[in-house]
Structure formats: structure tokens, C-alpha cells
Amino acid sequence: MDNADEPQIPATMTAIAIEKPGGPEVLVPRDVAVPQPGPREVLIKVAFAGVNRPDVAQRTGAYPPPPDASPLPGLEISGTVARLGAGVDSLLIGERVCALVAGGGYAQYCIADAALCLPVPDAMPLAEAAALPEGLFTVWHNVFERGWASEGETILVHGGTSGIGTMAIKLGKLFGLTVIVTCGSAAKCDEARRIGADHAIDYKADDFVKEVLRITEDRGVDLVLDMISGDYVPRNLKCLAMDGRHVTIAALGGPKAELNMGVIMSRRYTLTGSTLRPRSIAFKRLLAQEIAANVWPLVEKGELRPEMDARFALKDAADAHRRMEAGDHVGKIVLEV
């Protein structure tokens, strides 16, 4: 397919650059060249970009982009296809899509691998579409592929009102899980239950280990989705049922944990974890195929929608990061381009 009908594309665009590692103030608008799609890639005219915790880590210098990725922040976008790279015959110019990207989302145009683009249903606003890919890819892989979650099981999710937490609640309920979450206030627990959590524990008011065991009548949960790590890990293991699985996707509480390996062996626990951004494009393409087959029909039917918190103009990316770091958000923050 050629690009004869592609829209007029400027040579430069506005993007949010990270001037140097630091606070939100280092996010500044800059004029940069519009990138060109390579083989099997597309150029997307960005409508919205999702804001994620890894963006904050990249801004502070703690999570540098992979060598072949854009240095600009932004891991998920929605918009319309503006240009096709060589060999792309699965997408059309002007098609509404959302995409998982390895960087570059905080910009007017962004490159995406064609296989990582998912069609946005007509009934779905592009703001919501931009809030899907990062959380959806992360939760699907870690809960259902690495964590082997299956219908009838119980999962404990920390950070229940975060972007990942709210997606874990919604996917968990759609696929037959009982979902227990932890949150940092009674108000957030109320929000988590509104979103669909079966149980919500205020970890500042209650010992989440005792509460999990009370809720499960001392059986424990089958799976923990852990974003904290650090000293949470031995506490998480106390929440696990026999043959339980512990999946770590972030280490907000520090990367090191002290574990009793005898307990792990005797209770046959499985400990695993992953990061998404550095994974190969081949892996991400396979993951996209799994999501397209198993989850996207639910999106098309309107049964799965992201929990939306706030939107900011692209130029106000610093304020979006401030909101995320304040920890008051419930669901996803997006930038309107």
C-alpha cells in the first residue's frame, strides 16, 4: 500500500522533551523533526498520550529508554494513521488506532510498530483509547500469562486506584477473578469498590496481611500483583495460598527483599516478574495478538473501558506529572495533543 493519499505532514512538530533529569519542571515543549516510519512501522498523528509511572521514572533519570527508542517520554498513544512504512498492509491512512510505543508519545506525531496498533471502535473516545495500551499489555501479560490467573481464583492487587490497579480490577472481573486491592485511604477504597473490586483494604488503617486472611478465611490468595516490592514481598507471601504466584511489575518500595526460602519451597510458591518496555518487538507483537484475540472483543463491545482521571494539554505535561506524583489520581491521566 502506498502513501499517495496521506495527509500533509509538517517537517517539524511540538514535543515534550526532558531537558535533564529532575522534577516535573524539566518537561519542556520543543520543536523537533517529525520522525519517519521504517519497515513495518506507521506514523501516527497523536490525539492523546497516556501518562504512566515509567514516564516519571524516565524524567528523574531512573528509567532510561532502550537504545533504539525515542528519547521523548510517552509509552501509549491514540490518534490516526498518517503515514505507512514499507510493508504495512494491515492499516489504512486515517484509521483510528491506539498503540503501545517504546517512547515518543508526548508529541504531535509518533512512530509505532504496525502490529502494536489496535483499532479504536467508533464509540470509544480517543482520550480513553490512549489510556488502554500500557495498562492492558502489562496486566494481561503479568496476571494471565506469567501469573496463570484462571476463573474462580482470587488476586491481591496493590495500588488499586492506579492506572495498572484499575485495569487489573476490570480485567480480573471480566475473566472471573475475585479481586482484593489495597489503597491509601478510605475514599480510595470506596473508589476501588465502585470500579469493581470485591474487597478494598486501607493499608494505612489496617494490616493488609490480616485483612486478606480474614477475607479469604485463612486460605490466602492465588496471586499477588506487586508494584511495591521491598519489604512488601515477605508480607505478600504471607497472603498467598498454597501454590500461590507472586508477580512483581515495579519496585516503588525498593528492589531488595529478604525472603525465607524454606517457606517458598514448602508452600510451592512461584515468584516472577517482568518489565515491558525493554522487551523485544517480536515479543510485543505476540502479546498484541493475544490481546487482540482475547480482550479486544470486550473493548469493541464496550465491556472494557479504562478508568479516566484527568486530561492535560500537551504543553502542561509537567502538571500531569505533578498530579501523578501527588498520588491523588484514580485511574488514568492523559495528555491532549
From TrEMBL:
Signal peptide per UniProt: none
Full protein name: Putative PIG3 family NAD(P)H quinone oxidoreductase
Keywords: NADP, Oxidoreductase
Domain Enoyl reductase (ER), first and last residues per copy: 22-335
Pfam families: ADH_N (PF08240), ADH_zinc_N_2 (PF13602)
PANTHER family: OS02G0805600 PROTEIN, QUINONE OXIDOREDUCTASE PIG3-RELATED
NCBIfam families assigned: quinone_pig3
Key word Oxidoreductase present: yes
An MF annotation (GO) of this entry: oxidoreductase activity, acting on NAD(P)H
SUPFAM superfamilies attached to this UniProt entry: GroES-like, NAD(P)-binding Rossmann-fold domains
